[in-house]
Amino acid sequence: MIPSNLEPQRVFYFFNLINQIPRPSGKEEKMADFLVNFAKERGLFVYRDKVNNVIIRKPAAKGLEHVPSVVLQGHQDMVCEKNPDVSINFETDAIQTEYVDGYIKAKGTTLGGDDGIGVAMALAILDDSSLRLGQIEALFTIDEERGLMGAKNVEAGILQSKLMINLDSETEGQIFMGCAGGQDLAAYFDTEFEPVPKNSLQLEISITHLHGGHSGDDIEKGFGNANQILSKFLQQAKDKYGLRLCSFTGGNLRNAIPRDATAVCCIPFEYREQIRIDFNIYSAEMQQEYKKDENARYVMQSTTAASMLSQRVSNNVIDCLANLFNGVLCFSKDCPGLVETSSNLASVRTGKERICVVTSQRSLIYKDIFKMTDHIADTFQQYGAAVERSGDYPGWTPNPSSFLLKRAQEIHVQLFGKPIEARAIHAGLECGLFTTKYPDMDIISIGPNVKDIHSPAESLEVASVERVFRHVLAILTSLA
User: Fold this and answer.
1) How far apart are CA 165 and CA 406, in angstroms?
2) pTM, rounded to two decimals
3) What is the pLDDT of residue 362?
4) Low-confidence residues in the chain, pLDDT < 70
5) Which of 194, 259, 306, 325 is deepest in the core (most CB within 10 A)?
6) Are 383 and 443 within 8 A, CB to CB?
7) Catalytic residue list contains 144
8) Of 144, 145, 170, 172, catalytic
9) Is 218 a catalytic residue?
10) Helix (H, G, I), strand (E, B) or coil at 330
11) pLDDT value of residue 335
């Protein structure tokens, strides 16, 4: 539980309430109900659209009707990831939080600071009747994490403001003014199963407890991709011992670097000792290469399986996964250190009739999103898979001359005596979609320090929340 004395108390009060509400992507009905009731209890205008996006409008304080209206924007949903030993139903259970050394964390699951803390900040401002501000519109979108679906469905013309502060960034001391666009790809291998030979050894090989992280913002940080690491070992064993795949399961979400992957496979019994030696050597090499994945577990154990994939399908799946491009393709020439184009091998699922592999591609350059996706699709098709593209969304073109950006920078210097960096981010933000429907909207994105998002290691720095909230309030007050 979050202590009640943390500052700003109003923000953490609402963050605690939000963490009691199940809100996985695509299942935000309870969160939308909460927001609608919040508005009605305070006599505020509220509009809930057909997909459960919610808009709450707080009128300007008396005498400040002329002040520019501002949208405060965040998303309702959260990424639902957990450690393997944690039991939770994200559709019914609350997030269990704890306060540790200045940070709020969850017990073995994602915290939902992305973007629960942004929503909590907006609610705290809507709730405070003492603030002397112009009109505030709060827009709470749904299903951001799976493809910005809520933002895609926001109606053109429904918002009255021409200024927007997006509260979905995770790094204090930075103002985001641009972001990457992206597209998803699903590939399907038809399965062909046959009985496991009597003289074979069935093995379960798993790579778990990697660090994981955001597939955009963390893609260059040196964390291992469990699907990629496991598939490369399977390819090695296939070539040496004729390993045959029975099933492969890894990763969960398109926008998270996969932390866990497991394969069930079989080999001729005579190679039982050699493959274990090879796996021990490979594990040591990977632990040396991915030192940041300090809690990684590499396990090989005997199991039972009744059927295995045909040699053709097994070879195609293993070789495709092992050879598929994953990670950073290139960095931006205009913004040193910023990833320009990347791809993430997000998830693999084996079904009775087909194996589904999902990847996500991102780029700051719109046309390069599709070039990257085409390259990944070509690889899949070389190995006999059918592909489907989906979920493409535009990037957000930086505007260095933005009025709101300059005002936010000035206010930051006044408050804290130091400048704040303006930059673009490789992750996808909803801002790009808003600018397509509201081309005159002036947008910035800010937020407190939320570390290790999209993983059970996620943590929210309390002191950072206080400073960022003060910054947001000062920006709004300066307009009035």
Assistant:
1) 13
2) 0.77
3) 95
4) none
5) 259
6) no
7) yes
8) 144
9) no
10) strand
11) 78
